[in-house]
Hints:
Helices cover 31% and strands 21% of the residues of chain A. By secondary structure, chain A is α/β, with parallel strands linked by helices. By secondary structure, chain B is mainly β. Chain B contains no helices and eleven strands. Chain B has strands at 3-8, 16-22, 25-32, 37-42, 44-45, 50-51, 57-61, 64-68, 75-77, 93-99, 102-106. In chain B, the strands form three sheets. Chain B has a six-stranded antiparallel beta sheet, with no helix packed on it. A three-stranded antiparallel beta sheet of chain B has the order 7-8-9, with no helix packed on it. The complex binds flavin-adenine dinucleotide and iron/sulfur cluster (2 copies). One iron/sulfur cluster (SF4) binds at residues 640-642, 646, 648-649, 653, 678-680, 682-684 of chain A.
Amino acid sequence: MTTKKTLVVIGNGMVGQSFLASLVASPLKDEYTIVTFCEEPRAAYDRVHLSEFFSGKTAEDLSMVEPGFFEQHGITIHIGDKAATIDRQAKTLVSEKGVSIAYDKLVFATGSYPFVPPVPGHDRPQCLVYRTIEDLEAMAAAAKTGKIGTVIGGGLLGLEAAKALKDLGLTTHVVQFAPRLMEMQMDDAGGAMLRRKIEELGITVHTGKNTIDISDGVDCINKLVFADGDELETDLVLFSAGIRPRDELARDCALKVGARGGIVIDNQCKTSDPDIYAIGECALWNDKIFGLVAPGYAMARTVVADLAGEAASFTGADMSTKLKLMGVDVASIGDVHAKSQGALVYSYQNGDNGIYKRLVVSQDKKQLLGAVLVGDNSGYGTLLQYCLNGIELPENPDALILPHRSDESVGLGVDALPASAQICSCYDVTKGAICSAIEAGCTSIGALKSETKAATGCGGCSALLKSVMDCELARQGFEVNTDLCEHFAYTRQDLYNLMLVGEIKTFADFLAKHGKGHGCEICKPTIGNILASYWNEHILEPSHLGLQDTNDTFLANMQKDGTYSVVPRITGGEISPDMLIALGQVGKKYKLYTKITGGQRVDLFGARVDQLPHIWKELIDAGFESGHAYGKSLRTVKSCVGSTWCRYGVDDSVGLAIELENRYKGLRSPHKIKFAVSGCTRECAEAQGKDVGIIATENGWNLYVCGNGGMKPRHADLFATGLDKDTLIKYIDRFLSFYVRTAGRLQRTSVWMENMEGGLDYLKSVVIHDKLGLCEQLEQQMQHVIDTYQCEWKTTIEDESKLKRFRHFINSDQQDDNVVFVEERGQIRPADDNERKHFKLLEVA
Amino acid sequence: MIWQDVCGVDDLQPNSGVCALVDQQQVAIFYLPANNQCYAINNFDPFGHANVLSRGLIGDINGQPVVASPLYKQHFNLQTGVCLEDETVKIPVYGIRINNNRVEVNVQESGNEL
Ligand SMILES: Cc1cc2nc3c(=O)[nH]c(=O)nc-3n(C[C@H](O)[C@H](O)[C@H](O)COP(=O)(O)OP(=O)(O)OC[C@H]3O[C@@H](n4cnc5c(N)ncnc54)[C@H](O)[C@@H]3O)c2cc1C
Ligand code: SF4
Ligand code: SF4
């Protein structure tokens, strides 16, 4: 037996976890027994998106650890236990709870802590920081009783924290020591523009204020006193005055640390002890601490490579940032303060639109050294590539920031980027890597994302990724064929628009005007679906009948033996005992196999074609209606029991679910649509796995969109929070209509969203802010569908001519002798091939 | 008796299919009124092992008239019975004609007469 070496990682934060993930993906995993200490009460979570905790994300949502990760890879994690002492001579470590362990290699990934200035009173009640989930819970608790909140520190994080306070309903102040906001990333003019925009949002900004004391307030819990004598009453105080590396343990065991803190590392991320590495925010490289995740991830990769004996170095990192702060675009690149020798500055300011842009250019005007953008980030990708790759600037660099009012584009063609250009900084994906993936067959954004991981971190590079893909596909001579099929040289979306413009109502008309040949099983159902989603005529009308997919043609779901299953609608999953009995009686009478579906209703299997109308007649007489389980349409609105019964319920989830299901039932859509409503954030209805998910909160309904279970699960995105019912319904109307209009053939909302240029933000701008001026039309379109709803089965059984088809043989009342059932667990099931042969023999004999 | 009377033309579903029982064989009949064309093939889906082809969608692919299986979507040529996805699979094709507004099928002879 080979003896494994032991590797210990101290800290299971973002970087520690990324290190573990890279490590187990490498052959090294077999060489080491891996142990990690995690001081926090939970394994690594996404601190970058921490603020989303306030908009409904749970600790689980933020988790960075795949379920079963530690068990699967045999990693021992000590949660809630902290490494306490290290003996470097003996190479042992002891934890606070007394776990003692001998290591061969040790990695510090201890991160940093928020710096709290030693002002008198800094440890008073309601004086908090912003770094962990526990910090956020404390803030939420404090916000319940307080009215005013103040952030001390006007940097990037401080502004993010201010937004959180605002969202918690507090009157919010930001107190900044420096003369401008975000002093690290902004110049004066940029800072001023940012300030104006932030004040427009109702947050008061105080700059040049030095807090010297915190004491009892009169109206509030606390009072801040400033050096100039001014005072500010506030309940909550949130310090966001920078971070300090967690190097205490390293100091204790006499590793080399920097004068102002930080564990000193070399280019291989080794500390002064060659068996000990440090990565992430605790590490000091070249006298610099990197307060962002991407450099931490780069360090993690470097250590994995170094352990494997590969040559690898950490060579610093670009600290450019782009973000949306309270809806305001802000970006900074490189040398924003024009400190480089001879640097030239160009700037553009538009007070009306609140846009400010600044370029810092080398003396010879050939290289971009830095940039600041406020109010409009659109140029970020291009500028960053100029800067990082040293690409020569155009003759008039200011063209890059001046508004261009004609159609000419001054963007940098992605063609010009070298293969080494980094496109995704979170996962260090180069243009070269993307191009090889495309060559290997990834020709969609979705495929590229899963193959290369590009654009799956902060997502900042998704637009750039798309251009690289388009450009590369064109270069490799792919003609991206988006034709629906050989009969129609259009996409589903094109066809939808053609229908609108030409008021087309039948397939024959479509074919005559825009197609060729006779159609096929691709274009017929697609067009059948488009027509139904807009005109909403009965799908078994003679002109539509031949277009429908298998299940639609008999308004039931075909099973493997050619029989059908029947699913009546049970709105919101609520059903009275009498209805349940009626349903059971039908099942019994026709000897159907009955099963509860995942959508909280009952599926009756094994009905022959000729039985369908009889079964439905009885169901309709008992008060049921079609459940549209056969259609590409709204399936169910699942609900938890909600506030009516549940001890934790905040609102009536069942009531809302029933109302929504009744509103949208019958809507034909590009693919099936599922909803769910939960009565509180415990989320028993699993709304975040649905196309439309709704969760009740104290402040109103939170709306999630584009989730998906199935083959490729996707968590829904939080779309809007704290909605009243009318607004909620308005948004859903628009969302669904927009989906019906613009999605591709058989595209679920999840894929539709992933392929949408601009993604979630774009969708919000269309649905919430009416960017396309479409909302009224979208609502009318939905209203038409609602007004023309009919139970397709009721109409069918009332119409003799439609019933004619519901028999197996046109010329005989015999049954299909290939349909044979056997019994299992007290119910029927289709016989398998062997059993069927046996039956036939019996019959003959 | 070779040609057997099955049903009236009115009983067919325009641009879609029905199933008839002829000599204890299940025959899927498709009707395209545009060019007054009928096709008759066996109703059994050799991939899905079920009698369902009459309920498939019809259309044309590269000029060949086809039906797509409603179970797993393989295409069968309506004139030859050959499966487009797997040419080693061929299903029986029958003669069919319209006579005085009546539909007649010939299960002994393959091919179309119309
Ligand atoms: C609100 C917020 C927003 C942010 N936004 C961004 C952003 O937009 N972009 C960006 O790039 N970065 C952002 N950051 C910074 C980013 O979160 C950090 O760069 C990243 O978390 C650093 O990872 P780390 O593993 O080094 O440290 P951490 O994630 O802090 O992990 C260190 C872990 O080690 C534990 N630990 C410390 N000492 C011990 C010990 N002795 N034993 C056991 N465990 C120990 C700590 O408890 C902690 O859990 C943001 C940070 C915050 C707080
Ligand atoms: S989601 Fe909330 S309200 Fe609904 S059942 Fe669960 S705990 Fe109760
Ligand atoms: S998961 Fe697969 S087997 Fe189960 S119902 Fe869906 S398609 Fe059928």
